[in-house]
């Protein structure tokens, strides 16, 4: 009798927990500002967007929608190109993924409208592949495995000055973020994908079906991540200078010198891959908000490094382009003039205006700047 009663109590407890979980799942789906996960681990790139997955983002700005059938945050594009269309492929990180604004407000969709107006059959087709956290190596690997299927005439690599040099360095990236799921180019030119063999990657991959099914689990994981980020901000709130901004120093430490060298090698390889397809390779430098506005608003700087040169990253990339044979141009002057002449804040939202990602004004300005530059390369 006692055993039977124990079984009944355990069953009731289990049923109660299940009911609570189901109710919480329903509540999260109705009232949460975030959707379920829309990215998954990938053995080549570390992470990719899930084709057909729905997204909703409100941590910075706002957007919601659906990843297209080929895993891009863009409208649908066939691999087959229209015979009369000139196809531009834009590859980048979170500034190109652009989850902070609606899809139609992104710089690549605006650029498409600037080139094509209201034409039903676009003369210039722009395909955008952006994913948060991408480094230049992942962007090149995506092009090799997927991007060239679109048969582009021009490939534009949107290079974010704020962290793309660091993202190409294993030492700097793991030093700042700990273990990461992404490939790196080693000093001997080999692509290191050892992250695939880690237990963390295997476990994360195995959990994806469950995480896609349960918004509650995703909600909990996001809250844990937010707590960790806030904890880090509290620990470093007296820090005078972000490690990522070391790219603006006149004199680099050895890890930063290696990061610059690795970036040069990757861009040279990337250019060679694009040239195999008889396409033009262009790198565009997306400025960091620090270059435009100076000190980040939510930091209180007690001292500033004196060996800063905000033009140095662009100068480095211009030199790489000259040696390796690709084209480079920077959006820095365009954004700086917009701020100095019209006091336009193109980065940030609300209380965080002046930092973070582009707002709608930033995307509109980027589209205008890109159009004026790209016109010299287009037929």
Description of the structure:
- The chain is an alpha/beta fold and 379 residues long.
- The protein folds into 2 domains: 1-31; 34-374, SGNH hydrolase (Rossmann fold, 3-Layer(aba) Sandwich).
- It contains 13 helices and 11 strands.
- The strands form 4 sheets. Strands 6-5-7-10-11 form a 5-stranded parallel beta sheet, sandwiched between helices.
- A hairpin with a 3-residue loop joins strand 1 (39-42) and strand 2 (46-49).
- Helix 4 packs parallel to helix 9.
- The longest helix has 30 residues, at 2-31.
- The N and C termini lie far apart (86 Å).
- Mean pLDDT is 86; it is low at 235-239 and 296-302.
User: What is the 3D shape?
Assistant: globular
CATH superfamily of the largest domain, called what?
SGNH hydrolase
The average pLDDT value, as a whole number, equals 86
The CATH class of the largest domain is identified as Alpha Beta
Class per helix and strand makeup = alpha/beta
Summarize the structure.
The protein is built from 13 helices and 11 strands.
Which secondary structure elements does this structure contain, and how are they paired or packed?
Blueprint lengths: L1 H30 L7 E4 L3 E4 L4 E4 L5 E4 L19 E7 L1 H4 L9 H10 L7 E7 L5 H10 L8 E7 L3 H4 L2 H8 L6 E2 L5 E2 L6 H15 L1 H21 L18 H23 L3 E7 L2 H5 L18 H13 L2 E4 L1 H11 L17 H15 L5
Parallel strand pairs: 5-6, 5-7, 7-10, 10-11
Antiparallel strand pairs: 1-2, 3-4, 8-9
Helix pairs in contact: 3-13, 4-9, 7-8, 9-11
Output the keywords.
five-stranded parallel beta sheet, Rossmann fold, globular, alpha/beta, two-stranded antiparallel sheet, 2 domains, 13 helices, 379 residues, 11 strands
């Amino acid at each position: 009798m006692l055993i039977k009663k124990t079984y009944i109590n355990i069953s009731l407890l289990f049923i109660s927990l299940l009911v609570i979980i189901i109710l919480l799942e329903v509540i999260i789906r109705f009232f949460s500002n975030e959707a379920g996960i829309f990215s998954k681990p990938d053995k080549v790139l570390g992470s990719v967007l899930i084709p057909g997955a729905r997204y909703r983002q409100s941590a910075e700005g706002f957007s919601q929608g659906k990843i297209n059938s080929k895993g891009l945050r863009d409208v649908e594009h066939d691999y087959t190109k229209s015979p009369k269309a000139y196809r531009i492929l834009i590859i980048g990180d979170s500034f190109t993924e652009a989850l902070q604004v609606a899809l139609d407000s992104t710089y690549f969709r605006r650029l498409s409208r600037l080139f094509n107006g209201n034409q039903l059959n676009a003369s210039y087709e722009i395909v955008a592949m952006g994913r948060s956290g991408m480094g230049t190596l992942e962007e090149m690997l995506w092009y090799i495995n997927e991007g060239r299927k679109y048969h582009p005439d021009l490939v534009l690599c949107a290079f974010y000055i704020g962290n793309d040099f660091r993202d190409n360095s294993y030492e700097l990236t793991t030093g700042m973020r700990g273990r990461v799921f992404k490939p790196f180019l080693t000093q001997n030119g080999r692509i290191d994908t050892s992250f695939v063999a880690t237990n963390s990657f295997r476990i994360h991959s195995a959990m994806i079906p469950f995480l896609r099914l349960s918004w509650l689990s995703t909600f909990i994981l996001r809250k844990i991540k937010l707590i960790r980020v806030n904890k880090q901000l509290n620990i470093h709130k007296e820090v005078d200078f972000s490690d990522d901004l070391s790219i603006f120093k006149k004199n680099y430490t050895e890890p930063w010198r290696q990061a610059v060298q690795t970036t040069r090698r990757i861009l040279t390889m990337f250019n060679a891959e694009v040239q195999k397809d008889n396409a033009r390779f262009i790198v565009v430098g997306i400025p960091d908000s620090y270059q435009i506005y100076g000190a980040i608003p939510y930091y209180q700087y007690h001292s500033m490094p004196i060996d800063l040169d905000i033009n140095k990253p662009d100068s480095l990339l211009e030199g790489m382009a000259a040696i390796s044979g690709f084209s480079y141009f920077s959006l820095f002057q365009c954004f700086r003039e917009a701020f100095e002449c019209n006091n336009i804040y193109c980065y940030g939202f609300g209380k965080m205006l002046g930092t973070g990602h582009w707002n709608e004004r930033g995307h509109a300005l980027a589209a205008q700047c890109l159009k004026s530059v790209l016109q010299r390369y287009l037929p």
